[in-house]
């Protein structure tokens, strides 16, 4: 970080912390507890990263990826793996032969802000399994289970088969979990499908799609990640072999560079 910017940001962070201490008359004992808790977090692998992900990443993304008319962002989270398999149509996310869970047919479109279909738009999709694991991060899953990349067709449409993801509890054994519990907050995240979308000439989008009726929608452990515009119905019509959901994504064009 450039030194002048570091000075400016640090000054404000310190100022904010000092104001909290003064406003709440933080005691010496509370200060000691904070110091111990931060030390505990620092000795646990990935705990500080998780803490920041839970408390701050959504705000950082909102500042950097705000949209005027495109689909809203939602945090990438810690479970993306680059280089997921490039799938061929008809798209089915890689899954175990005995993959548990209800099948889900996820369809939709990818368009530019003016409504033009974005043929060939790339979707990189990843999600948790119905038995609660992200491949790569939880033991016992094939490498790219429920991860894949696919493209939208000539009319910007896409469709892929997967399983209905389950709500998930973020790791809560560490300092982050202890903080959430002490605050009476849940460690749950609502069920979601993660996506990264890209198309030439458009700003890349990292987001998540959530489902209506999920009990954790209004108290996501990850502050600010769940946005009303990203919630879609999960449709189950009797007799169908799979639940369905759909979402129409909008990518914002990158502004043309000014001619000189
Ligand atoms: C997730 O989407 O799985 C996630 C996001 C932020 C923190 C932890 C998990
Ligand atoms: Fe997730």
Verbal overview:
This protein is of the alpha/beta class and 260 residues long. 24% of the residues lie in helices and 23% in strands. The protein has five helices and eleven strands, in the order ααααββββββαβββββ. The strands form three sheets. The protein has a five-stranded mixed sheet with strand order 4-3-8-9-10, with no helix packed on it. The protein has a four-stranded mixed sheet with strand order 1-5-2-11, with no helix packed on it. The longest helix is centred in the first third of the chain and has 22 residues, at 3-24. The chain is globular and about 60 Å long. The chain starts with a helix and ends in a 9-residue tail after the last strand. The structure holds benzoic acid (BEZ) and fe (iii) ion.
SSE map:
Layout: H1 3-24, H2 28-43, H3 47-55, H4 57-64, E1 91-92, E2 103-112, E3 122-127, E4 147-151, E5 157-163, E6 168-169, H5 175-182, E7 188-189, E8 192-198, E9 205-211, E10 231-232, E11 243-251
Parallel strand pairs: 1-5, 2-11, 9-10
Antiparallel strand pairs: 2-5, 3-4, 3-8, 6-7, 8-9
The protein binds benzoic acid and fe (iii) ion.
